[in-house]
Design brief:
Blueprint lengths: L1 E7 L3 E7 L5 E8 L3 H13 L3 E8 L28 H9 L3 E5 H12 L7 E7 L3 E7 L2 E2 L33 H5 L1 H8 L11 H20 L5 E4 L8 H13 L17 E2 L7 H17 L7
Parallel strand pairs: 1-4, 4-5, 6-9, 9-10
Antiparallel strand pairs: 1-2, 2-3, 6-7, 7-8
The chain binds adenosine-5'-diphosphate and zinc ion.
């Protein structure tokens, strides 16, 4: 049995064919042009394989309210043609198989929860730090949607003293996490490619300070059992010990858990166990869920 997976991103659409258990057999990638150009490419590729279902992890914001007429649409996008585009419905109709959609980060969170760093736990936070910053949250085995879906990248932070770009660069908010700490924010602030910065560059202490604020805020609001940090910027592995240390400092000994100690935190704020495959694995798992639901398994409340 094959499942189709679409990782829908602002620059590219990655289509994969895999198993319901999350292993990938085939992959193809198309640039994100207009829906008129790109959607037929996606459909052509996936329909070559006899898939039984499709899972989509998409950039957002998305309409994830099953009672809404726009369920499965992209709600807000600066990319021409994608604003309001009914991605789920179009792909489900054109491929003729059951499909499920969630945010790219909820998909990655689901994969890490079921098969990676969160195995055996009941909650997990996954945050990607790349071109943008997004967070996916699993609680009690289910991706959290709530009012819309979490928009953790736009959490407001306290600008650090001495930050040469304390307002950040988000067009919507002053000093939000994404505006201050995404890859492009680092590069704009320092005028240098993040990949080329040495470990002693002041950019990294600042980056760790902002990511630690996010971790501390999430620990005191949601209390996830593990925090997984992925994305291009987190390729800088030296950020992990700095973020852990600063998170402990910010929490000031207040949170009574063995995980929130100098010894425990190394296994609490961690890189993705599935590496760069969290996203695709999550989309495959969403596809498998769509299939189970179509086969009559009652969805969890
Ligand atoms: P996307 O978010 O577009 O899906 P990535 O997660 O790879 O893709 O994020 C790309 C961003 O991450 C770029 O802004 C780049 O500056 C930054 N980045 C990628 N690789 C590295 C690296 N090795 N070190 C630091 N920053 C990186
Ligand atoms: Zn913002």
């Amino acid at each position: 049995m094959f499942i189709g997976a679409l990782e829908a991103g602002g620059t590219k659409m990655v289509c994969s064919i895999g198993s319901p258990q999350g292993s990938v057999l085939q992959r193809a990638s198309f640039p994100t042009a207009s829906p008129e150009v790109t959607v037929p490419q996606i459909v052509d590729f996936i329909s070559k394989f006899n898939v039984d279902a499709l899972g989509i992890g998409s950039f957002g914001p998305l309409d994830l309210n099953p009672d809404s007429p726009g369920y499965g649409s992209i709600t807000l996008s600066p990319k021409l043609g994608w604003q309001g585009y009914p991605l789920l419905r179009e792909l489900e109709d054109r491929l003729g198989v059951p499909a499920a959609i969630d945010t790219d980060v909820n998909a990655a969170a689901l994969a890490e929860y079921q098969m990676g760093a969160g195995k055996g736990l009941s909650s997990l936070l996954y945050v990607t730090v790349g071109t943008g910053i997004g967070g996916g949250l699993i609680i009690g085995g289910e991706p959290v949607h709530g009012l819309v879906h979490p928009e953790l990248g736009h959490m407001l932070l306290a600008p650090q003293e001495g930050d040469p770009m304390p307002d950040g660069m988000c067009p919507f908010h002053r000093h939000c996490l994404e505006g201050l700490a995404s890859g492009p924010a680092i590069e704009k602030r320092w005028g240098l490619s993040a990949k080329l910065m040495t470990q002693d560059h002041p950019a990294w202490e600042l980056e760790a300070a902002y990511l630690a604020q996010m971790c501390a805020n999430m620990i005191v609001t949601v209390s996830p059992e593990i925090i997984v940090l992925g994305g291009g910027v987190m390729q800088q592995a030296h950020l992990f010990p700095r973020i852990r240390e600063r998170t402990l400092e910010l929490l000031g000994g207040y949170v009574a858990s063995e995980k929130i100690t100098p010894e425990g935190i190394a296994s609490y704020i961690v890189p993705p166990a599935l590496g760069v495959n969290s996203g695709v694995t999550g989309a495959l798992l969403l596809g498998a869920r769509a299939l189970r639901q179509a086969q009559g398994e009652t969805p969890k409340p």
